[in-house]
Design brief:
It is a single chain. The protein is of the alpha+beta class and about 270 residues long. The protein has a domain of about 160 residues. The chain is about 50% helix and about 10% strand. It has 5 helices and 9 strands. The strands form 4 sheets. A 3-stranded antiparallel β-sheet has the order 1-9-8, with no helix packed on it. It has a two-stranded antiparallel ribbon with strand order 2-3. It has a two-stranded antiparallel ribbon with strand order 4-5. Strand 8 and strand 9 form a beta hairpin. The termini are far apart.
Length: about 270
């Protein structure tokens, strides 16, 4: 399969208010080796950071995600330990199918293809003919497809992580908004209580003043009249009592007189 022969940065035009058109560079560069061929740049999320890698660097940075010999993508489910061989390089730890490793004995000293030739090996070295036309064979196509699968899986995980983070931040924002509303309501309640406390003494003072103003004030003339009325009422009551006692005594006196007259007639 032939690839685009140009590796120069691609440009695009955009309209701005100050000029009719300006050239903007959209070329991506590999963060590891510095390659600027945008056709083979993959976007991945590595250790929580968005990174750009070429096919070779992407595969080198994900050694446990595929078999370095047949480029089978494991998709978070590597083969059973009895069916794989781990690279003995402490910086690699790639997982190779036991059938792809061949007669690697002992298995503890096995080195994957990239670790055998760390300076000259490349997962994705394009084939260039005499005319400068680039092409890929089946092996390079498998390597590129494996890198694309790794990048897609990485970005899917990034989307899930971003969604979970957005949900968490949304819950935190809702909780913070609820706490802020409760705090404002508490402040309003305290302010109303403070206002009520400051108003109560004033209400008490005003009520006392009203009671004092409503009490009747007696003049000296009215006092004398009251004394005279009291004295006259007392005299009247005394007279009434005396008359009553006199009236009560009259029948007994009459009986005594009757008895005296009867005795005298005998």
């Amino acid at each position: 399969m032939n690839l685009p022969s140009s590796t120069t940065p691609t440009t695009a035009t955009s309209t701005s208010p100050s000029s009719d058109s300006t050239e903007t560079n959209f070329t991506e560069r590999c963060d590891d080796c510095g390659s600027r061929d945008s056709w083979v740049i993959h976007t991945v999320r590595l250790r929580g950071t968005l990174r750009f890698f070429c096919t070779h660097c992407l595969l080198r940075n994900h050694p446990t995600s595929f078999c370095p010999s047949c480029f089978a993508f494991y998709d978070s489910s590597p083969p059973h330990p009895s069916r794989r061989v781990t690279c003995s390089n402490s910086k690699c730890h790639s997982l190779t199918h036991i059938q792809c490793a061949g007669d690697a004995k002992p298995a503890s000293s096995y080195l994957c293809p990239p670790c055998r030739n760390p300076t000259s090996f490349s997962f994705f070295r394009l084939i260039v003919d005499g005319n400068g036309c680039r092409s890929v064979d089946k092996t390079l196509s498998e390597a590129f497809l494996c890198a694309a699968k790794i990048a897609a899986s990485s970005m899917n995980k990034a989307v899930i992580a971003a969604k979970c983070d957005a949900d968490r931040r949304g819950r935190e924002a809702a909780l913070a908004r609820k706490r802020a509303r409760e705090a404002l309501e508490h402040v309003v309640m305290l302010d109303e209580k403070e206002k009520a406390r400051s108003v109560m003494p004033k209400l008490k003072e005003s009520s006392v003043d009203r009671v004092i103003d409503q009490k009747p004030k007696l003049s000296p003339a009215s006092n004398n009249g009251t004394v005279k009325e009291t004295e006259s009422s007392a005299t009247t009551s005394t007279t009434t009592k005396n008359n009553g006692s006199t009236e009560k005594q009259n029948p007994s006196m009459q009986l005594a007189k009757v008895k005296q007259e009867a005795d005298a007639s005998r």
